[in-house]
Amino acid sequence: MRSIGSALFYTVALALLICNCNGQGADELAADDLYDYKERIPVYANKVGPFDNPSVTYDYYSLPLCKPANVEEMSQSFSEILGGNRRFTTDFSLTFGDNRAKRLCDVRFTEDGLTKLQNAVSQDYYYELLIEDIHVRDFIGRRNDYGLFLKAHHRFIVGHKGNKIVSAAIIDSQNAAGYLELSPQLIKDSQTSEGIPITYSVTYLPLDKYSNEQLLNTTNSFKNTTSHKNEGAQQLAILNTSVLLLLLSGFWLVLISKSLSTEFTSVFFGDADAETGPHEKGWKMIKEDIFRCPAYSSLLCAVVGAGSQLFVVIYGMIVVGYLGVFE
Predict the structure, then answer these.
(1) Exposure letters 196-235 (e unless 16+ CB within 10 A, then b)
(2) pTM score, two decimals?
(3) What's the rounded mean pLDDT across residues 168-184?
(4) Quick one: pLDDT at residue 327?
(5) pLDDT tens readout for residues 50-88
(6) % of the chain beyond a pLDDT of 90
(7) What are the residues facing 59 on neighbouring strands?
(8) What's the CA gap between 44 and 80, in Å, rounded?
(9) What does the pLDDT look like over 148-162, one tens digit per residue?
(10) How far is CA 159 from CA 11, 64, 97, in A?
(11) Distance between CA atoms of 293 and 154, rounded to whole angstroms?
(12) Secondary structure, 3-state, the chain
């Protein structure tokens, strides 16, 4: 039995090591990347989705956004797939240390594409990119009393220590030129010229001079909206949890008081065995029905103690992953 337990232990340890390598190896390698001046930094498109329902996400290119001629989907680990991540290549060309503004693409809008963007902006859709495996988010556009507006200029801010990237964020455009009004006139303007330009710019901040806190406190509408909405959501969640706990506690007390009424009577008013007779209820009945030894208890203890259930689960996950079910 000891040899079987040792074999199972080493098998489980090897399986966990393999899963850990598959799930975190890419991040660890990416975190150690060092960039020379004007070396390209990979930027991947991940997903889009409504801000108020983060569990619902879609492919980044499900909306008519700037799309490369040949879109490639990158391989992902099992944990990334479970998180709803979908990595696609983009035309963002970030070069280390180069702060020049660049043109991403020229967009020609159609009625169908305009309708999709209007619906996305009205529902506060956000988009997510990955810069050196760092997730950065911002809203696709913004809405106010004057209409719906699409983000036409992306401003990235990248913090680095030496030649290593350690943080990244997207900040808001400071002028109205960074947004396009989603109106029918936009279709006409995009069709009569080469298209509407979508641009981006990058600012590199050496964290030797700028603290990480200053970098994180840069103006970002997504972060500001997230913190503002989370305050109300947290208060509502606390209230709902408190009410639910009170109700559950009340129900639990009612059930316990009824099921253990005989015990309370015997404790506070003397022995009630003569009155209850064979219809006794309470902890004695629970003890006889629930806490009795199962059949083949020795075999059950040996199997559970050796970790056989963990071996079956992990071995099954390895086989399913090897067959490519999660790809």
Answers:
(1) bebbbebebbebeeeeeeebeebebbbbeebeeeeeeeee
(2) 0.58
(3) 79
(4) 58
(5) 988 878 888 888 888 888 888 888 877 776 777 777 888
(6) 4
(7) 47
(8) 14
(9) 989 888 888 888 888
(10) 42, 30, 11
(11) 66
(12) CHHHHHHHHHHHHHHHHHHHHHHHHHHHHHHCCCCCCCCEECEEEEEEEECCCCCCCEEHHHCCCCCCCCCCECCCCHHHHHCCCCCEECCCCEECCCCCCEEEEEECCCHHHHHHHHHHHHCCEEEEEEECCEEEEEECEEEECCEEEEECEEEEEEEEECCEEEEEEEECCCCHHHEEECCHHHHHHHHCCCCEEEEEEEEEEECCCCCHHHHHCCCCHHHHHHHHHHHHHHHHHHHHHHHHHHHHHHHHHHHHHHHCHHHHHHHHHCCCHHHHHHHCCCHHHHHHHCCCCCCCHHHHHHHHHCCHHHHHHHHHHHHHHHCCCCC
Q: 255-298, pLDDT tens digit by residue? A: 777 767 766 666 666 554 544 445 555 555 665 666 677 788 88
Beta 58-59 vs 94-95: how paired, if at all?
unpaired
- The confidence score (pLDDT) of residue 125 equals 92
Instruction: Record the tokens describing residue 271, joined without a space.
Output: 């022995």
* Structural contact between residues 57 and 123, judged by C-beta atoms closer than 8 angstroms: no
The dihedral region occupied by 246, where left means phi > 0, alpha psi between -120 and 50, and beta the remainder, is alpha
